[in-house]
Amino acid sequence: MRKTIQSLLFIVIVLFSLPAEAQYDPAFDTIGDNVLFRKEMNGALIVHTNGWGLEYRVGRNRSIFNKMMLEFDLLEYKHSKEIKSINPFYTNTRSYIYGKLNTIYMLRAGFGEQRMLNRKPYSGGVELRLFYTGGLSVAFAKPVYLNIMEWDTTEYRPRISVEKYNPNEHFPDNIYGRASFLKGFDELKPYPGAYVKVGLGIEFGTINQNTKVAEVGAVVDFYAKAIPIMASQSPEQFFLTLYISFGIGKRYD
């Protein structure tokens, strides 16, 4: 995680050093580039310090340099203490996370503003955007199910059963592996909360109507009730993540 944070900080420094080399020059303008599309939409893949996710965002210009945005994020959150394990006493077993109580998914819906720091020239280059958003965040906890090895005393042979992970009953010597990914979705438990996001985006490319955007930023999620993730760790209410993303989209009227 430390290396990921250091990489993100390096990207931030590089991005903030770009405006001096990519300032708007009116000499590059043409009539076509001066057309201001009022709306914009894009989808993005997010990689953050505790997992990955998807984003969908729509925006509407208030002026040349300001845009109001509506965004939706769907992410998976992995605890920093997660370590993959495997039962060494059996072959063809599936890996699992020992001590993990719940798998966490986050759904965000928010509203915010984007400000253009410099305008991209018609000949190509980059356009820098500073943005901040906030809104509702709901975390869904899916209980972890495991394949448990038991000894059948009637037939005198091992038997595998699917059980919800219990730290008082399930240990490395009787855990055969993780159960089906779909197991537990019917027991999703919601944890309502809120989030705040701030970041810097780079829009690049030579076609004004099509967008390619890379972003780096930070997000804080806070939930009304603490969420249990690992049996050996206290439940958490506060989540701070750094992220980078890459998306494509279009501008239109």
Structure, explained:
6% of the residues lie in helices and 56% in strands. It has 1 helix and 13 strands, in the order αβββββββββββββ. The longest helix has 15 residues, at 2-16. The strands form 3 sheets. An 8-stranded antiparallel β-barrel has the order 1-2-3-6-7-11-12-13. The chain has one domain (2-83, 98-143, 183-252): Porin (Beta Barrel), CATH 2.40.160. Strand 8 and strand 9 (157-164) form a beta hairpin. The protein is mostly beta strands. The model is unreliable at 12-34 (pLDDT under 50). The chain has one helix at 2-16, and strands spanning 39-48, 51-61, 66-77, 84-85, 96-97, 102-116, 126-143, 145-152, 157-164, 175-178, 189-204, 210-227, 236-252.
Quickly describe the structure.
With 253 residues, the protein is mostly beta strands. It has one helix spanning 2-16; strands at residues 39-48, 51-61, 66-77, 84-85, 96-97, 102-116, 126-143, 145-152, 157-164, 175-178, 189-204, 210-227, 236-252. The strands form 3 sheets. The chain has an 8-stranded antiparallel β-barrel.
Q: Please outline the major beta sheet.
A: 8 strands, antiparallel, barrel
Overall 3D geometry? elongated
Number of strands: 13
Mean pLDDT equals 86
Name of the top-level CATH class:
Mainly Beta
- List low-pLDDT spans: 12-34
Distance from first to last alpha carbon: 42 Å
CATH architecture: Beta Barrel
**How helical, in percent, are the residues?**
under 10%
- Alpha plus pi helix count: 1
User: What is Rg?
Assistant: 23 Å
Count of individual domains: 1
The quaternary structure here is single chain
CATH topology: Porin
Our estimate of the beta-strand percent is over 45%
Helix and strand content put the structural class at mainly beta
H/E element sequence: HEEEEEEEEEEEEE
Spatial arrangement of strands, main beta sheet: 1-2-3-6-7-11-12-13
